[in-house]
Amino acid sequence: MPTTRVFAERRCQQDLGEIRHNNENSSIIFVEPIGDDYLNLEAAITGPISTPYENEIFCINIKLSEEYP
């Protein structure tokens, strides 16, 4: 029987696929797992338009728990 981690990683893979598919008008530049660990992600986003952060790029690390989502 798959572990809770396996279920969380599968769900994250599914969610990342949706993000990639629906990313045309998004502020997300990319979001990818670090290595093969789908519970440890890195991402880059752009600052919101009409704010002091417009045209800036922010790199972030995202750690998901084994209870994700």
From TrEMBL:
SUPFAM superfamilies: UBC-like
PROSITE patterns membership: UBC_2
One Pfam family this sequence matches: UQ_con
Domain (UBC core) ranges: 7-69
Designated name of the protein: UBC core domain-containing protein
Species lineage: Eukaryota, Metazoa, Spiralia, Gnathifera, Rotifera
